Amino acid sequence: MLYNRGAKGRSGMKKDTLKPGERDESLSSEEDGGDSRFEALLREAAYVPPVTPRRIWPRLSKGVQLLCGRFTVKRFLGQGGMGVVYEVEDSMRRARVALKTLPFVDANGIYRLKQEFRALAGVCHPNLVGLHELFCDDGQWFFTMDLIKGVPLLEYVGDLPGSPRLKRVFAELATGIHAIHEAGKLHRDLKPTNAMVTQDKRAVIMDFGLASDQETGGAGQTAVEESVSGTPLYMSPEQAALKAASCASDWYAFG
Ligand SMILES: Nc1ncnc2c1ncn2[C@@H]1O[C@H](COP(=O)(O)OP(=O)(O)O)[C@@H](O)[C@H]1O
Ligand SMILES: [Mg+2]
Q: Are 2 and 17 in contact (CB under 8 A)?
């Protein structure tokens, strides 16, 4: 970007443009000291702070407290491509809940964490993990949700193609996906590690980190979303091509 100032350079020749960082001597001459101060003010007003650098959070250990003691970390539950999840005691609810946060903080991560929470915060369904509240404590963003006491989907179904157990779990997962679609959303990252089966044998879909509105299908919303749009093994062709996803894309991933 060049600034067209119409000013004269040191040589006395008219200088039409100034590059960033280049001084316009005519403005800082002794006669017009006021202009010099004015320029300093302009510089200050135009200053854009650098993008927040990536800050790494250490793994939270047992007993660590968040939000003035409301949450106490009990144990680490798991970590995926974006978030890290802990079991915590929620002293207000007087219950154990799951807390998802970022292993590091940067603008993209915070954006996605908020999106994940907001996408399905109002949706309540037995086959979808229920989201509770979104918080920021001293720069650390996190949200809480139902604690799923159970096992990962693959561990539950094991190597049992066609078994009644598999059929029942798949029927429940399909019900959960249908509920997401009924809410006008898409999951866009359906895969076995994003589902668990509770102790009372209920299949639950979680991780709405790539959820989007059906209207946009998540295509081209922002550079952040364009860069990560699913998991290659389960991704529909349209998602792989960075085109808009649809309900069909979720069903493709489902199998
Ligand atoms: N609500 C929950 N209850 C219990 N465990 C959970 C819960 N949410 C996530 N986990 C565990 O944490 C892991 C990572 O969570 P996930 O939301 O998939 O993170 P990412 O967005 O990074 O993929 C999951 O695979 C699961 O083992
Ligand atoms: Mg995940």
A: yes
pLDDT in tens, the chain (255 residues): 333 333 343 333 444 444 545 554 544 445 556 678 888 877 777 765 554 566 788 899 999 999 999 999 999 999 998 899 999 999 999 999 999 999 988 888 899 999 999 999 999 999 999 999 999 998 899 999 999 999 999 999 887 667 778 889 999 999 999 999 999 999 999 999 999 999 999 999 999 999 999 988 877 554 455 554 567 889 999 988 888 999 999 999 998
The whole domain housing 71 covers: 54-145
Q: Are residues 170 and 240 in the same domain?
A: yes
Do residues 135 and 168 both lie within one domain?
no
Atom number, ligand 1, closest to the C-alpha of residue 149: 4
Report how far Cα 145 is from the mean position of its chain's Cα atoms: 15
Across the strands, what pairs with 172? Answer: none
136 and 209 belong to one structural domain: no
Atom of ligand 1 nearest to the CA of 150: 4
Domain identity same for 182 and 198: yes
Rounded to the nearest 10 degrees, how much is the dihedral formed by the CA atoms of 225, 124, 122, 230?
0
Ligand 1 centroid, distance to 111 Cα (angstroms): 18
Count of domains in the chain?
3
